[in-house]
Structure formats: structure tokens, C-alpha cells
Amino acid sequence: MNIKEIPLIERPREKAFLKGVNSLNNYELLAIIIGSGVKNKNAIEISSELINYFNGLSNLFEQSYIELSKIKGLSKVKSLKLNAFFELCKRKEEIAYLESYDRFNIQNFVKKIRKYILNYQIENLIIVTLNNKNKVLCIKNIDFNEKRIKVSCFDVIKFVIQNGAIKFIVVHNHSGNLIEPSLEDLNYAKTLQTEAKKFNLNLIDSIILNREDYFSFFEENLL
């Protein structure tokens, strides 16, 4: 069906302008993001096929742009735009879940950050950027490979600056049962703190996790 065959006030874009986006169903919202259809298939029909083909929004949001582009009417460019939008939504959910860092309730922060450690056999570095009110801006998880290569202080600071943050936390896990920081951990945290100050950035905590426990540099007065 051509979109022009749909009454003007029922078309997704016009309906959104008139009644607000909260008046639109999922198909109509997705159709606005898709923008336009192709011959014999309008944007609403494409969005309907997308949601139904992938069995709902949750599964749809997990698809790569390659999978999305298999749907007739979605070019690689449109598929990539959708993929980028889905990724933004997931990041928003992550930030909403983590909310903020409270120095007086580090256990709650640790409980939530654990979900980002997918494999305790591999060392991970998680960078959490914060605004001046300690609200989470962005979360980045970096897997170390089996060689356990450390991420440079410069790369961490670069990421913090790119995210427009002024504060940040680094979290990493120990693959074994030890929770106490190694000499390497201590030197890394101190160097990172020193280098961050040169850019007016504040490393407010460095946290080590194992499967059962945590170690906070802030709680132990090491930062």
C-alpha cells in the first residue's frame, strides 16, 4: 500500500506531530525511524514485518545490520541507522540500571556492575564515566585476552574526555580468588589518578572484583 492511501491524520509522522509520539504504536514508531518505504511496501508494512519476523522488539534490538537488511525495503544504510538506534536504546537502559555511584553505598554499585562481567576467567576492565553529580554517563567494557594486556592510562583518559565526563571509575576483575590488589594494580591506579589530574579529571574509585567479593581503593584510602 502506498503511504498516500492512508488518511493524513493516520500517517505516523503527521499523527506524531498532532498527538505526540506516545500516541503511536510500535509499528508506527519504527516506521518514523525507517523514514520511507519502497514500491508496493510502505514504511509501516516494513516495520510490521521487522517486528513480526524477529518475534518482537526484544529480539529485533539484538539483530545486526546485516540481519536487518535481509528484510525487503531496508537498505544497508537504513539497517545501519536502525542498528545504531537500537544500540543507543541499550546503552540508555544500562545507564538507567546503574544510575549513579554512591561512595556511601559502594556495595550497591558493585552488585549492579557485576552484570557487565560476563566471564570471570577473562580479565575485564570497565570504565564508568560520571558527571559532577556522580550520575553515570557511559559504561565501557574492555575484555583483556589471555595475555592480560593492560589498557593504557592514555586510552582510559581519552575515553573519559570523549564522553564529556569529569569523573570516572575503573573496575576490573581478578580471574582467581584473590581480591587484594597486586603491586601492578596499585601502580596502575596511582598512575591513572596522576595522569587524569593533568586533564582536570577525577578518578574517584578503582574497584577490583572476584566472584564473591570486591575491593574498593576509595574505601581503603588508597585514592
Percent of residues in helical segments? Answer: 40-55%
Instruction: Give me the strand/helix succession.
Output: HHHHHHHEEHEHEE
- As a whole number of angstroms, the C-alpha radius of gyration is 23 Å
Category from helices, strands and their pairing = alpha+beta
Number of strands: 5
Beta-strand portion reads 5-15%
Mean pLDDT: 85
**N-C termini distance:** 64 Å
Structure, explained:
It is a single chain. With 223 residues, this protein is an alpha+beta fold. It is 41% helix and 15% strand. The protein has nine helices and five strands. Strands 2-1-3-4-5 form a five-stranded mixed β-sheet, sandwiched between helices. A hairpin with a 5-residue loop joins strand 1 and strand 2.
What is the fold's blueprint, element by element?
Blueprint: H1 12-19, H2 26-34, H3 43-53, H4 57-60, H5 65-68, H6 76-98, H7 106-113, E1 124-130, E2 136-143, H8 153-162, E3 167-173, H9 183-197, E4 202-209, E5 214-216
How would you summarize this macromolecular structure in one to three sentences?
This protein has 223 residues and is α+β, with helices and mostly antiparallel strands.
Keywords:
single chain; 223 residues; alpha+beta; five-stranded mixed sheet; 5 strands; elongated
